[in-house]
Amino acid sequence: MAAGTNLDALAREISECRACPRLVEWREAVAAEPRASFRGETYWGRPVPGFGDPNAHLLIAGLAPAAHGGNRTGRVFTGDRSGDFLFASLHRTGFANQPTSVALDDGLRLHDAYVSAAVRCAPPANKPTPAERDQCRPYLLRELELLTELRVIVTLGSFAYEALWAALRAAGRALPSPRPKFGHGSEVVLNDLLVIGCFHPSQQNTFTGKLTPEMMDAVFQRASAVISTAA
């Protein structure tokens, strides 16, 4: 089967997962009591699969869906401030056809990029546990297997970096030891794959200026340059 077909099947499987009781309880409780600004909307309230181009050379790995973002809309980084920041940057750097991501049917398309997350359910206080991260690892591992054209992986934050490292180890990749430290703009070369670190576009980072649009654009411009060189 084509990569897109396999990714669609994986997305359906992810959306039905109930492996982590704490996350299941939280995501469904949030969906049952919508925030006032979203009252009247029907929340997705399930695990959120990855999204994007099945032939992508770029994978972007985030932390987890936001309670009133991906958990509401059903698409990763969609309907929240972090997503606003991320997709605006992807649009400026040529990976997205529009700068906004507000709903499943908003017309957003990614070019040569796929967006995923370390954990697929919205966690309380946006803090999944290491055990929940590990429970979700097979989904990230299978995405890595299905996205056969990958050349660059951008990890949004240290939690996603750690999750990716574990998935790459499980995939049998030869990894440097000790593990290189995560940092914004950090780079690790793994034969034909480059891993780039980027601060997570959380409001805590973007409102304080720890992560600026120019800083995020530079990461994706670097990814684009690497992909172009490898083509």
Q: What is the succession of H and E elements? A: HHEEHHEHEHEEHH
Q: Helix proportion of residues, in percent?
A: 40-55%
Tell me which oligomeric state these chains represent: single chain
CATH class wording = Alpha Beta
Physical arrangement of strands within the biggest beta sheet: 1-3-2-4-6-5
Average pLDDT, rounded to a whole number, is: 96
CATH superfamily membership, which one? Uracil-DNA glycosylase-like domain
Straight-line N-to-C gap: 24 Å
Strand content: 5-15%
CATH topology title: Uracil-DNA Glycosylase, subunit E
Runs with pLDDT <50, length 5+? Answer: none
What does this structure look like?
By secondary structure, the chain is an alpha/beta fold. The protein has one domain (3-230): Uracil-DNA glycosylase-like domain (Uracil-DNA Glycosylase, subunit E), CATH 3.40.470. Helices cover 40% and strands 12% of the residues. It contains 8 helices and 6 strands, in the order ααββααβαβαββαα. The protein has helices spanning 3-15, 21-32, 70-73, 81-92, 130-146, 158-170, 203-206, 213-230; strands spanning 51-52, 58-62, 113-117, 152-156, 187-190, 193-198. Strands 1-3-2-4-6-5 form a 6-stranded mixed sheet. β5 (187-190) and β6 form a beta hairpin. α1 (3-15) packs antiparallel against α5 (130-146) and α5 packs across α6. It is globular. The chain starts with a helix and ends with a helix. The mean pLDDT is 96.
